[in-house]
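Ligand: fe (ii) ion. Inputs:
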Amino acid sequence: MTIDKVRRNMLKTSSAGIIATAFGTTTAQAQSQAMGAANLQINAFHVEHELKPLAFKSSLLDGLSARLIDSHWANNYGGSVRALNTVNKRLAEALAATDTPAFIYNDLKREHLMRTGSVILHEYYFDNLGGDGKAPASVRSLLAASFGDFNRWETEYRKIGAGLGGGAGWVVLAYNRHFQVLENYWMADHMHSPADSVPLLVMDMYEHSYQMDYGSATARYIDAFFSNINWDEVMLRIEALARTAK
Ligand SMILES: [Fe+2]
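Predicted complex:
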């Protein structure tokens, strides 16, 4: 399926069911096929996560310093990777100890949920940086079909980010497989995201993402983020999503 075919199909359909409809299949089929490709043999307690290297040279970003990006990657993202590995080991030990109170076990499970979200969202975030910020026509058409026009999508995405300024959270453009719709999501932390949604473009709004370069000037960070979006990566995510619908 070519991008042009994707775009032609997007233009013919409404926002509801846009991905699945574009590929002539149902969400249930997509989910079934995605499950078939899943690796269900990994021991959940023995997963050892490794830091995913940046796909770009941090010194080459426009308006986001290497010092900021490198610190964010090594300390905030890296800290969550290391913490998640520790939590997995502690969970295995706590489960083996029959006298572990359930409420103590759930303290670890809460940390497990939080660190899992942090690792995944940071990997999406860094992977969708390193581009020139110029959305190709195929993406513009897709978002225009879903949001009315591309600028309306961007206006909402930026507004959600601005609202999170000075605090913490994420802005996520995602495909909600259950509702079959593309939506921008406000997420106040790593733990609360819509079920059955696939992230396509992720923006970190925790202060550590911009404070070093911009202080509390959130709008300037959002401008810098948009200047560095790697839309090719976003398209790859859309194509991967579309493949599961074949
Ligand atoms: Fe972060």
